[in-house]
Predict the 3D structure of the following.
Amino acid sequence: MQAQGSLSDPGHRAVPPRIQLWSWRLAMLSGLLFGAWLFRVQLLTYLAGVLIHDGNHATPTAVLIYDGDRCFVVAAKLVSSGTNDVILPSGRRNRLVRMGVLLPSEEIGRRELLKQNVPEGNIYSIAVHGKMDCSTVATALCDWAEDHPGRTIGVLCDRFSSRKWRTILNRAPNLSAVKRIHVIPVPDRHFNETNWWQSKEGTMAFVNGILRLTFCYLHPDGEPVWQERTQADFRATISADTSQ
Amino acid sequence: MKPTFTFRKYRKGLVCVVILALCMAAYFERYDILSSAGAWLDVSAPLERPVDSVMVLGGDSTTRPFVAAAIVRAGLANKVILPQLNHSSAVIDGIVPTEEQITRDVLRLGGVDANVIVRIPGPVNSTNDESSRLASYLREHPEERIAIVTSNYHTRRCRLLFARSCGALSQNLRFVGAPTDGFNSRDWWQFESGTVAYVGEYLKIAQAICF
């Protein structure tokens, strides 16, 4: 019995079409993997680029410090190049702050800015309701921008969180205020989008950035109420007898 | 000609139907699946009897030292072991205190005497490093029973890594899971930090198994 595909060469042993198909698929996959390996630097750089929003480069009249490596130094440079106000968000104190182990974040920020010779009179705090995260800070910032109509505001944030920040800002209801706020991604001293995969810190920042951005897209309404654990919760984890 | 039903003929259709059914089942049961996935990471257990020491792993000084202090206060351990953690950029710049200092302060305020806190020498940058340092410590103190305190979702990977590093001595270890602020295994996917922690933990487990 003659197999398909052997008509032109009856003496040659035919390869069944299913095996031919799988060979072709395997060859395609190998080619794709080889291509991905060959262009891995460009691919990985492109992937990290998805996390970054780097738009307006004009010096803003006010800058809000959220996070990012050496963000206080960057803020001080902006002040020296024309920015008037530095805004520090002030949220709910966590238990380490309440116990006096850590200073409140706005107090740390104020101290660091003074070290960088930013005048005390240029530093402001804005109250953030609840747990301090991008959404609550963005809401507080939009309210501030509404009360200060002439100002343009830059938000200093970690470079791999800048896309998330832009996405959250774009969801804010007050478009006229949002238009005046732009995101300033702060680069990390150890890595950037062209070499993040070479260090543990960079890889962690990239993976966390992807997860955070995905969460941001999947949960446009934000998070439920954040609740801190109590001493009773801590005691309960070690032994049922000592939890009383 | 009489039509005949053959599995081969309808195989692709059947596969599609099965995949679709599985996807629908997964969607409708997503909360149970996600809760189970979260609970799977937690292999911690309350301490059934006292141990000699309690080791606080680095990574979350807002909760873990509080559990360690509660263990000491309850008389379940009389020594606290701390790893020598590598410093973050903010620590190097002098913006925030070191994590070790924060942990020591919490322990002190939690009623733990500073004299019972010992540090294992050698810098650590990961859970794997911590397990290697503890393995060296256990080789010098083979009789010592130690409770490892870490976040509850981190205990499975810890058990894996510490068992790998400590070998037979890992039978002296107990894993105590500190609850995290905000989220737990039943609602982690509703919180950004929960998603980062739990999904990241699965990725790290995969890395720990593969490499």
